[in-house]
Specification:
The protein is α/β, with parallel strands linked by helices. The chain has 4 domains: 78 residues, no CATH class; 102 residues, Immunoglobulin-like, CATH 2.60.40; 328 residues, TIM Barrel, CATH 3.20.20; 92 residues, Immunoglobulin-like. The strands form 6 sheets. It has an 8-stranded parallel β-sheet. The chain has an 8-stranded antiparallel β-sheet with strand order 31-30-33-28-27-26-29-32, with no helix packed on it. A hairpin with a 2-residue loop joins strand 12 and strand 13. Helix 9 runs parallel beside helix 10 and helix 10 runs parallel beside helix 11. The radius of gyration is 33 Å and the shape is globular. The N terminus is likely disordered.
């Protein structure tokens, strides 16, 4: 019997036939070609050939005997020709792109076989960008089907000015193809870029261009709308925090990002695109909680495990450690980075919100939980080309301070809910105790970590006062100021939006105005020694400038109090006194520092307030 190749008529071995991956037909005929004794068999796997050949050979022998001649059998294998995938650029958003703005590439693919366009193991689309500096950056593409768009896209934001060269690639079914190499130009803009820990003073955030970012904001986890977005913008708030959850609103009224295993909710993703665009116009940065505790909880509070598609794969206790779940997570993170990370308003990835509210932690799998956080942190570090910082958190009880967690992430993050076991430092003075908790917890972070620390949630109905009481809102004012002057990198992210009154928002705006004059990311600020009789006084400073806030402990006025500050060089300074309730400058005075101490006296204030803020400069 002769086995030959259809295209070249050369003899081939069984090993050759078995190596064929996609034969379109197998044809049996006599060597002489006089008669086809079997019909054409289409779409047959090579592995079937050994099973059917004995019957074919027997049929040929019988045929030969009946016709009085012998003839060898020829087996001819027709092989489908594999056509490589093709990728081309069908359009771009612009040829000249301002720094930190979106450069979007629209992509057409041909000759590809796609079952799930969201799975990079099915089809992998990406680009390699060469910056003016020569740095090569990989940017993954993604499939956008928002409102039936059905478009492959790639989004990139340039950090440098000059000419960028890029080329697109597609990998499908073991084959790889590339587009032509093309260029675009990045030009200067007024934008500052993404946020990350400052390289100069790592206790604070800086934008990509080095300018200071101090977070001023509130948690608004669901039920969001344009009214809320405008409230942030009108009060100079620049930090907006939200969950991936299903509890209603412009974004979260559309379900989860991953409702179907391995596929992504295009309505929600499109709404997040819109939200980021709104934030870009208003200078707001987003902290996005990828995993609220609800989605990893079946028996702990706010249990929503059943709507998590990973519940189809594992029991809830194994969600942190299961290897298949991790593969799905990585694909989800890749899609989110590809679609959203380019935006200068994408601020912080919150890996998980309140890990102790999940079954894995509650059932003692603490090592697996910490290992998962570390694994996620490494993934984002290696795969987010814009280096957005990551954080994770526990709930707001006094005992939920977790140094091992803070070592793993870029941003130490504790929640502060005083009603959950926080001791009152001054039992006879609830207002002072409430302020002290924020001052003390901020300083603890400063002393332990050279990282920008935040209070990722605070307040709610779990403070020493009820939100219905006036004291609750006075306390809010004290707490945002105490956190600033003890080294926190953002205002406490209050839980949540509906709790705050119009007056509270005014207080945020005042503090934002005060902070705007401080170059926190680029000055070596540190806590300075400060004292005043009957006053809680906190000062951050360098050798030549400082800022601070003081509040009297009793019922007396702050006006006339003497503040003594050590750590400044001996030289004259201008002290600018600010009313922390209105933001108005009360008075500026020129005072020398002598023998390592600056003594300054608070001016009399017409509106009797127990506190005052100040800035000190040469």
């Amino acid at each position: 019997m002769i086995i030959s190749c259809f295209s070249c008529d050369e003899c081939v071995s069984w090993e050759c036939i078995n190596s064929l991956k996609n034969p379109s037909m197998v044809q049996f005929m006599s060597k002489s070609g006089k008669r086809i004794i079997t019909t054409i068999i289409t779409v047959i796997l090579p592995a079937i050939l050994p099973a059917i050949l004995p019957a074919v050979v027997a049929q040929q022998q019988l045929f030969s005997q009946r016709n009085g001649h012998t003839d060898d059998l020829r087996v001819t294998v027709h092989q489908n020709e594999k056509i490589d995938p093709a990728i081309r650029i069908s359009g771009t958003s612009a040829d000249r792109v301002p720094q930190y703005e979106k450069f979007e590439v629209f992509i057409d693919l041909d000759h590809v076989e796609i079952d799930n366009p969201y799975d990079p193991e099915d089809i992998d689309v990406y680009g390699l960008f060469t910056a003016p500096s020569g740095q090569e950056i990989r940017i993954n593409g993604f499939y956008d089907d928002y409102l039936g768009t059905g478009q492959w896209k790639l989004r990139f934001s340039p950090a440098d000015t000059g000419t960028y060269t890029y080329q697109l690639f597609v990998e499908d079914a073991g084959s790889k193809s590339a587009s032509d190499r093309v260029q675009f130009t990045a030009v200067e803009s007024e934008h500052h870029g993404w946020i990350r820990p400052s390289r100069v003073n790592p206790h604070y955030f800086a934008h990509d261009d080095g300018t200071t970012y101090y977070g001023v904001g509130v948690y608004s986890p669901w039920r969001n709308n344009m009214e809320r977005f405008e409230t942030f913008a009108e009060h100079d708030a620049n930090l907006f925090a939200i969950w991936d959850i299903t509890y209603g609103g412009f974004v979260n009224g559309t379900g989860l990002i991953e409702e179907e295993l391995g596929r992504y909710n295009q309505l929600k993703c499109g709404r997040i695109d819109s939200m980021l665009s709104i934030f870009e116009q208003r200078g707001i940065r987003l902290m996005y909680a990828i995993w609220p505790h609800d989605l990893f909880s079946e028996t702990v509070w706010a249990a929503r495990w059943k709507i998590n598609p990973y519940s189809q794969l594992v029991e809830v206790d194994h969600v942190y450690s299961d290897s298949l779940v991790w593969e799905y997570q990585k694909k989800k993170y890749r899609y989110m980075v590809a679609r959203f990370a380019h935006s200068r308003s994408m601020g912080i990835w919150e890996l998980i919100n309140e890990m102790n509210g999940t079954d894995g932690w509650a059932h003692g799998r603490h090592r697996e939980c910490y290992d998962w956080v570390g694994k996620c942190e490494r993934w984002f570090e290696e795969n987010d080309p814009y280096n957005h910082p990551v954080t994770a958190s526990f709930s707001g009880g006094y005992g939920e301070y977790r140094e091992e967690l803070y070592e793993l992430t870029d941003i130490p993050n504790i929640h502060i809910y005083p009603a959950q076991g926080w001791p009152a430092e001054y039992p006879e003075d609830t207002m002072r105790s409430a302020m002290y908790n924020y001052a003390w917890a901020s300083r603890r972070f400063w002393d332990r970590f050279e990282k920008p620390a935040i209070f990722g949630e605070a307040g709610a109905g779990l403070a020493y006062y009820s939100p219905r009481e006036k004291e609750y809102h006075v306390s809010y004012h004290n707490q945002i100021w105490a956190s600033l002057v003890n080294g926190l990198a953002a205002t406490p992210v209050w839980w949540d939006y509906p709790v705050l009154t119009a007056e509270d928002w005014d207080q945020l705006k005042v503090l934002a105005g005060f902070v705007s004059a401080l170059d926190l990311a680029n000055r070596p600020y540190r806590p300075l020694e400060a004292a005043a009789n009957g006053t809680d006084l906190y000062v951050m400073g360098t050798a030549t400038d400082a800022f601070g806030w003081g509040r009297v402990c009793g019922k007396e006025e702050i006006g006339g109090k003497e503040f003594r500050i050590r750590g400044l060089d001996d030289r004259p300074y201008t002290v600018s006194w600010v009313d922390p309730w209105s933001g108005k400058t009360l008075e500026s005075t020129r005072v020398p520092s002598r023998n390592g101490e600056l003594a300054i006296t608070v001016p009399r204030i017409n509106d009797a307030h127990p506190d005052v803020a100040f800035r000190i400069a040469e």
